[in-house]
Amino acid sequence: MQASTSIKIQRTGHLVSRVCEEMASSRAQAVATLLLRVLALLLLIASLIIIAVNKVYTPFLKVEDPPNFTFRDVYAYRYVLSVAVIGCAYTLLVLPFAAIHVAQGKRIGRSGATTFIIFTDVLFSVLIATGAAAGLGLTVEFQRSQPHDGSDADNFYNLVDTSCGLMLAATVCMVIIVMISVNSLT
To answer: What's the whole-model pTM score?
Structure first.
C-alpha cells in the first residue's frame, strides 16, 4: 500500500513540476514577446522620425522652386514612410494583447485568435521588410551613381540607410515573435 502511495506521490510530483515548468516557460515566452513588440515599436518609431525629418537643402534658382529634397520627392521613400506608419499602428494595436497575456497569464481568445495574430505578424513582418528593402535598394542605386563628397545628399542617403536598417531590425524582432508564438502552439 505504501509503495503504491509513494509511486502516486512521485507521479504527482513529476506532474506538478512539469506543469510549473510549462507555466514558467509560457510566462517567459509572453514576457519575451512583449519586450520584442516594444522593441519593434521603438525601432519603427525611430525609423519613422528619421525618414520624416530627413531633407537636403539645395540651392534654388527661382523663388517658386522648393529648396528642399525630402522623402516626398521619391515614391520609394514615401513607401518606406508609409510602411513605418502602418507597422507602428499594427504594433500599437497588438501590444495590449501581449501585455494582457503577461499580466493575466492567459491569451486573449482561443487558438484561432492566436493563429490569426501569428498570421498577421507574418504579414506585417513581410510588409516592413519590403519597405526597408525598397528604401535600401533605391538608396544604394543613388549612392552608386553620385560621387561621395560629404555633401548634404550623402548625409541624406546615409540617414535613409539608417532608417531602413532600423526597419530591418524591427522585422527581425517580429520574426522572433512569430517563432516564439508558433513554438507556444505546439
So the answer is: 0.79
